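Long-time lurker, first post.

We've been arguing in lab meeting about whether adenosine-5'-triphosphate would sit comfortably in this protein at all. Half the group thinks yes, half thinks no, and nobody has a model to point at. So I'm putting the question to the forum: if I give you the sequence and the SMILES, can you give me back a predicted structure of the complex? Inputs are below. Any interpretation is welcome too.
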Amino acid sequence: MTQNAAVRVRGLRKRYGGVAAVDGVDLDIARGEVFGILGPNGAGKSTTVEILQGYRTRDGGEVAVLGEDPAAGGREWQAKVGIVWQDGGAAQELTVAETVRHFARYYPRPRDAEEVIALVGLEEKAGSRTKALSGGQRRRLDVALGVIGGPELLLLDEPTTGFDPVARRQFWELIRSLAEEGTTIILTTHYLEEAEALTDRLAVISAGRVVAEGAADTLAGRARARATVRWTEPDGTRRTEETDTPTRTVAELAARFGGGEVPELRVTRPTLEDVYLRLIGERDGQGVAS
Ligand SMILES: Nc1ncnc2c1ncn2[C@@H]1O[C@H](COP(=O)(O)OP(=O)(O)OP(=O)(O)O)[C@@H](O)[C@H]1O
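Top reply:
Settle the argument with this. Predicted structure of the protein with adenosine-5'-triphosphate, as tokens:
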């Protein structure tokens, strides 16, 4: 990957005392991608993201973020990398609009504050003090502060933890609109449906290593895995068949049911959760410390 790379990581390592938090991670993330990092608690996701942000030092490996080493990233580089902190640290007494305008001053070429407030859906709260915002609205403000500098890359660590389902979907729309504007987005998440809905590609990290990488719908051979065909017979008996050739099974069923509807017909492949749990279990089975 060349200029098209937003992130290139080779052999990244980080230890905390006796713990290998990141143990040889490679990542290639293209510009314009929405990239997810999944993995169990303690897998090394936050440590990896913090190294990409330049917030944490590494013990080994090569890291290039927007073509530069984050450990040496100057102000120009920092302005191109947007960070959404878990708690944005906005002063409680300032209003939303004041907070966003205040943060804009830190950047050489900030976006328009009103436009960013609209982008995150906080127009109606622009005059409210930040202490009066709900948790979800606070998170939107955190994102506004992450994008006010007009970043080329936005890093989000567990952005939707604690969101209700409606707020989560609204947040996905926000991420999608940023991606449509061309922002590269890297996010960690514990929500598999979020990874599936939002990311172009994802990496599963376990015990400091990447154990699988790819698009959510084809991860770890998911799309080619055995299918399960389920249907109900006319007498009400539920039937299940595992098969490598679901099309043939369905064709046979269709013929048997005279071309009419096969009652409660369903063809499924392993879900992202199925393959995720298998990937994590496989590594645990190898006795790798978490
Ligand atoms: N500042 C620190 N000092 C010592 N150990 C740390 C520190 N930060 C993280 N660790 C350890 O490094 C490992 C990886 O932690 P990290 O926070 O990167 O995991 P994570 O995948 O983000 O987990 P979670 O899903 O729980 O947020 C864990 O074993 C953790 O206990």
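For your lab meeting: Residues 226-268 form one domain. The pocket of adenosine-5'-triphosphate is lined by residues 16, 19, 21, 39, 41-47 (CB under 6 Å). Whichever side wins, do check it experimentally.
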